[in-house]
Amino acid sequence: MPLLFQIPSNFFAIFCVRQLGRKTTTIAAFALGGLCILTLGVVGDDFWTVFTLGTLGVSFIAIDAATIYIYSSELYPTVVRNMGMGICSMSMRFGSMLAPFISNLSVTIPWLPTVIFGFAPLIGAAVCLLLPETKGKKLPDSFEDIST
Questions:
Q1: What residues make up the domain containing 47?
Q2: Which one of 27, 38, 39, 142 is CB 3.0 to 4.6 Å from 118, fit for a cystine?
C-alpha cells in the first residue's frame, strides 16, 4: 500500500525540483513530513486522520528521498563526489536500520518514537537552510569551486 502513494510522490518530486529548486524542495518536504509525524502524536485514534497524516508523512519523506540524491550529488566537487554520495547513501541506510529499534521504544515510552521520527526531519530541514541552492549552477569540479 505505501508504494501506491510513493510513486506519485516521486513524480511530484521531479516537478518540485524543476520548479522550486533542490534546496526549497528538500526543506519543505522535510519540514512538512516532520510536522505530519509530530501531529500524529497528538491526534486521537480516528482512523481517517491517522491514515491521512501517515500517508502525507510517508509521501513527503518519499519526496525527500528522491530529492536528496540529486541535491547532495550537486553539492560535492567532482574529485570527491563518489565518496560523498557513498557516505550519504550509507547514512540513509544506517537510519533505516535504526528505525525498527526506535519504533520498539514505544513499549517503554509510548511517545518517544513519534518525537524522534518527527524531530529528525525538522532538524534536517534546519541544517539544509545552511546549504546553497544548486539549481541552474555549474557542478563544482574542485574544492576551490565550492568556496566561490
A1: 2-134
A2: 38
